[in-house]
Specification:
The structure holds two protein chains of two kinds. By secondary structure, chain A is an alpha/beta fold. Helix content of chain A is 35%, strand content 22%. In chain A, β9 and β10 form a beta hairpin. The longest helix of chain A is centred in the C-terminal third of the chain and has 16 residues. By secondary structure, chain B is an all-alpha fold. In chain B, strands 1-2 form a two-stranded antiparallel ribbon. The chains are: A alpha/beta, B mainly alpha.
C-alpha cells in the first residue's frame, strides 16, 4: 500500500453529549478510490465534514502528505486541493451552474474593474462549460439558468463537477448517487474512475454495496464513530461488510475490530486479516 | 425531465435566446409594463396636468428619498433578510446631522458637508449594529430591526425632546434641497446615482454575487468559502448608510427634521422591493425592479389626485399589487421546484 495522502488518526467529535466520532481513523491514497461505509449514525458524514474543514474535531490528528494539518475552514481545505460533494449538494439554487462552480472563487475582470470586484462572467461560463464537458457531463449544457430549474440528476452533476474541477488532491463524495436513477448513477461511477485516473484520491460514501464493490479499491467500515474494519473488495464479500457494519463480526473471528477495541488494533486489520479469517 | 437529462441535447439554447425567454417570463418585466401602462393612461387622460414637466419633477422628487432606502432594502431582502429600522435610522441620522451642523454654526459648505458625513456615519453605525446582531449573535433580522426601529426613533426623540429641529445651512437646502442641474433636481440626481451604483454592484460584482448566494443558501455559501457573517454585516451596514443619506436628503428638502414623517418608510420600501420582483425568501431580485416598485405607488398617487379620484384608492391599489407580486413569486417558485 502506498503512503496515505490524507489520513485521519483518532478523530473525536462531540455534539453536546452525543459522540459522533470516537477516535475514528481513515486514510486514502492518491489515485485510489476508498469507499467509506457504515450504518446510519456511524459518523460517515461527520468525518467527511471534519476532513473538509467544515467541522472542527475535538481530538485526533489529520495528516496531509505526511504532515499534520489543521483544516480550520473550507477555504483551507480548498487551498490544499481537498473538495467535497456534500450529501445535500450545497448548491445555491438561485445561482446558475457556472456561478455555483466558481462560488467563493470568482474570476474577476482584468485591470481596474477587477480591483473594484467586477466579475468576469464570460470567462467563468466558458470554464464551467469546459469543466462539464471534461467530465462528460453532457446533461448540464445550460450554464446560465438557475440550478433550481435543473433536474435532481443535473444538480448532482453540478455538485460533482464542481468538486472534481477544483480538486487537485482529494475528492469526498457523500452519497453522490443517492437521488439518481440507474443510468445517472453509473455515469457518476464512470466519473469517479476518471477522477481517480487523474491521480486524485476519491472517497466514496455510499449505501449501495454493488456500487461500492464496483468502483472501490478499498472499503473502510465505520461503526459507532470508529473504523472497525478495512477490506479489499476483491477478497471480501457483502456479508463481511454487512457484518462489520452491524457489529455481527464482533463476536466472531473479527473480534479485534470491536468498537470498544483500541484504534491501533483496528488500523492493523487489513485485507490480509480477512484472508486469515 | 429524466428523458431529457438521459439523452444529450444537441441543440443547447443559445445565451441570448435564454435571456430573452427569461425576460418575457420575468415578473420584473411584467411589473415594468404595468408601470408603463399606468403612465400611458394618466398621460393620455390628462396630458396637460400629468405629463407636465413640473408634475414629472414632483413625482421624482417625492420618490427620491424612498428610492435611496429601497436600494439598500433590495440588498437586504436578496440576502434573505429584512430591515424594519430604515425609517427610524433615517430620522435618527437627520437629527445627528442637524445637531452637528448646529454645533458648527449652521452655515457654509464645510458645515454642510460635515453634516452630510455625520448623517451617513450615524446611519452606518445603526446598520453595523443590525448586521452584527443578526450575523454574529444570530438574532432573527425581524426582531433585531424591530428593536432598532424603536431604539433609533426613541433616541432621536430623546435628543430633540420630541421637537423637530431647524437650522439647516442654506447652502445645503438651496443645492441639495431645491437646486437643479440641467433642470434635474439634485435630490433626483443623488437618488439616480445611488440607484445606478446599486444596479451595477448587485448585478456585476462579487459583492452582488455573494449577496445572492447568501440569500439563496447560506450554508452552501459558507462551505464554498464565502465569509457569510461578514457579508451580512456589510449588507446591513450599506442599508444603514443609505438610510443616513436619505435622512440628509430629507433634511435638505424640508429644512427641518421630520421625526413623525417616516413611520411607514420601512413598509413602503419593503413593498417597493417586493413589487419589483425581489423574493422575500432571498436569492432573487434586481435593483431595477425596485425602481419600478417605488414608482408604481407614487405614479398612482399622483395620477389619482390629478384625476380627482380619492387618493386613498392608491393605498388599496398598492396593496393589491403587492399581494399579486408575492403570489406570482410563489407560483414561479413552486413551478421551478417541481422540476
Amino acid at each position: 500500500m502506498s503512503a496515505a495522502l490524507l489520513e485521519a488518526r483518532g478523530i473525536v467529535k462531540n455534539y453536546g453529549h452525543v459522540q459522533a466520532l470516537r477516535g475514528a481513523d481513515f486514510s486514502v491514497e492518491a489515485g485510489k478510490v476508498v469507499a467509506m461505509v457504515g450504518d446510519n449514525g456511524a459518523g460517515k458524514s461527520t468525518l467527511v465534514k471534519v476532513l473538509s474543514g467544515i467541522e472542527q474535531p475535538d481530538g485526533g490528528e489529520i495528516r496531509f502528505e505526511g504532515q499534520p494539518v489543521a483544516l480550520a475552514s473550507a477555504a483551507r481545505a480548498h487551498a490544499l486541493g481537498i473538495e467535497t460533494v456534500y450529501q445535500d449538494l450545497a448548491l445555491a439554487p438561485d445561482l446558475d451552474p457556472a456561478a455555483n462552480l466558481f462560488l467563493g472563487r470568482e474570476l474577476l475582470r482584468d485591470g481596474v474593474l477587477g480591483r473594484l470586484g467586477f466579475l468576469d462572467n464570460k470567462r467563468m461560463q466558458q470554464r464551467a462549460e469546459e469543466a462539464f464537458a471534461d467530465l462528460g457531463q453532457t446533461t448540464v449544457q445550460q450554464v446560465t439558468v438557475p440550478v433550481a430549474s435543473l433536474s435532481g440528476g443535473q444538480r448532482q452533476s453540478v455538485a460533482v463537477a464542481r468538486a472534481s474541477a477544483w480538486a487537485s488532491k482529494v475528492v469526498f463524495m457523500d452519497e453522490p448517487t443517492a437521488a439518481l436513477g440507474v443510468v445517472q448513477a453509473s455515469k457518476v461511477l464512470d466519473l469517479i474512475r476518471r477522477v481517480r485516473d487523474q491521480g486524485i484520491a476519491v472517497v466514496l460514501i455510499s449505501h449501495s454495496m454493488p456500487q461500492v464493490f464496483d468502483v472501490a479499491d478499498r472499503i473502510e467500515v465505520l461503526r459507532l464513530g470508529q473504523r472497525v474494519a478495512r477490506f479489499d473488495p476483491h477478497e471480501a464479500d457483502m456479508a463481511d461488510i454487512v457484518g462489520a457494519m452491524t457489529g455481527a463480526l464482533e463476536h466472531g473471528e473479527a473480534s479485534t475490530a470491536e468498537p470498544g477495541g483500541s484504534s491501533e488494533q483496528a488500523r492493523q486489520r487489513g485485507p490480509s486479516g480477512q484472508e486469515d479469517a | 425531465m429524466s428523458a431529457a437529462t438521459g439523452s444529450d441535447r444537441t441543440q443547447p439554447v443559445t445565451e441570448s435566446r435564454a435571456r430573452r425567454l427569461r425576460f418575457l417570463t420575468d415578473s420584473t418585466a411584467l411589473i415594468f409594463l404595468v408601470l408603463l401602462a399606468l403612465v400611458a393612461v394618466f398621460a393620455l387622460v390628462r396630458p396637460d396636468a400629468f405629463a407636465s414637466v413640473n408634475n414629472v419633477r414632483n413625482i421624482f422628487i417625492g420618490a427620491a428619498t424612498l428610492l435611496v432606502i429601497a436600494v439598500g432594502m433590495t440588498f437586504v431582502i436578496v440576502s434573505a433578510g429584512i430591515d424594519l429600522s430604515v425609517g427610524s435610522v433615517l430620522v435618527f441620522s437627520s437629527v445627528i446631522s442637524i445637531k452637528v451642523m448646529t454645533a458648527l454654526g449652521n452655515q457654509g459648505w464645510p458645515v454642510a458637508i460635515a453634516g452630510v458625513a455625520a448623517g451617513m456615519a450615524a446611519g452606518l453605525a445603526w446598520g453595523l449594529l443590525n448586521g452584527v446582531l443578526i450575523a454574529k449573535a444570530r438574532i432573527p433580522a425581524l426582531i433585531v430591526t424591530l428593536g432598532t426601529l424603536g431604539a433609533a426613533l426613541g433616541l432621536a426623540q430623546i435628543i430633540t425632546g420630541g421637537v423637530n429641529l431647524r437650522g439647516v445651512p442654506v447652502e445645503l437646502t438651496e443645492a441639495l434641497g431645491f437646486g437643479r442641474v440641467a433642470g434635474i433636481p439634485w435630490l433626483v440626481v443623488v437618488a439616480a446615482v445611488v440607484t445606478a451604483i446599486g444596479i451595477v454592484v448587485l448585478r456585476f460584482t462579487r459583492f452582488g454575487r455573494y449577496t445572492y448566494a447568501v440569500g439563496s443558501n447560506p450554508e452552501a455559501a459558507r462551505r464554498a468559502g464565502v465569509k457569510v457573517e461578514r457579508h451580512l454585516i456589510k449588507v446591513y451596514a450599506l442599508t444603514g448608510m443609505l438610510s443616513g443619506l436619505a435622512g440628509v436628503m430629507s433634511l435638505a428638502r424640508f429644512s427641518s427634521t421630520n421625526i413623525g414623517g417616516h413611520l411607514t418608510d420601512n413598509l413602503q420600501a419593503i413593498a417597493a422591493v417586493v413589487i419589483g420582483g425581489t423574493s422575500l425568501f432571498g436569492g432573487i431580485g434586481t435593483v431595477f425592479g425596485t425602481v419600478v416598485g417605488v414608482f408604481i405607488p407614487s405614479v398612482l398617487q399622483n395620477g389619482f389626485v390629478i384625476l380627482r379620484v380619492q387618493p386613498f384608492w392608491q393605498e388599496v391599489a398598492v396593496g393589491v399589487v403587492l399581494i399579486a407580486a408575492v403570489y406570482i413569486d410563489q407560483i414561479k417558485r413552486r413551478a421551478r421546484e417541481r422540476l
